[in-house]
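Hi C.,

You asked whether I'd gotten around to modeling the 330-residue construct. I have! Everything is below, sequence then structure, no commentary in between.
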Amino acid sequence: MDLVIARNPDPDSRLPFLLRVPLAGGMVFRTSDVWPRTKALFCYPVEVDEWPADPDIVERVGLRSCVRRGAAIDLVLDRGRENRSQIVFTRGRGREMVFWQSPRTRKQARPNVRTPTARAAGLDDLTIVVDSHERYAYRCTGQQVNTSSRALPCGDYGLMVDDRLIASVERKSLADLVGSLTGGKLRFALAELAALPRAAVVVEDRYSAVFKLDRVRPAVVADGLAELQIRYPEVPIVFCETRQLAEEWTYRYLAAARQWFETEEAARQRITPTVQEEPAVDGAGGVPEPSTAEVRAWAREQGISVPDRGRLRPDIWAAWHAAHPPTTSP
């Protein structure tokens, strides 16, 4: 008997995978990933008939054991790693729910706290912009906030004022944080975030989880994070224990940034209205040189393929300069 995971053929479903368990004639669930590595996965039970006749199989693994014990199904896979998991039938928010969890996710801390519903910074018209590339984005459904989607030059959640990105938060799971840190992408991401007035990175886990890593030396990750904080002190890396708390922190951080922009920044402009920094100009015609983030956003609007992080290709800069020729004063 096998545990089979296939792609969900329903394009409108937010759960892109189908999980089939060989129990009671076959049980099928929609789920969001192929294994509960960093968090328990929500599962939506469906009829066996929903399993496609010609499934797009993502993974098929033999089972040593598949036994239902009370309100849970214990699974033991025939492989060396990631071989034990449990499908749990429970109740939450007044309805029946199913979660797929592993020993690692089951041991994760449950803070058992209720986040407040009071408006952050007293704002009742806050709009958070979610990057259009963000998968399974925060919805802030329990807060008094609106969300919109568009391509952000950096970060996953931003605050726009007069079409200008004034604050941004980059969201990371622990696995994503470690991967981007060891691969070098996190350095470029923080460099772009540091160019904004306010920015931060929020991690959906405890800092102590860094020292429980088994595939990467914990000291390498801890030293890398410390080095980045020294290099980019204006971009804090905040560990928030769970996704729920990370979402709450992101909402209140962006609300505080909005209040700061409307008060402290406005006051600074009134106090020193004549003190302005000279913009950087290119050598050709005195046109202010844009930031990498601005050119990236412009290129996406023009339908030009650009990387999400890092330096831009010379041809992209050439296209921007061609579309913004220098003008001479009359």
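If it helps when you're writing up: Confidence is low (pLDDT under 50) at residues 272-281.

Thanks,
B.
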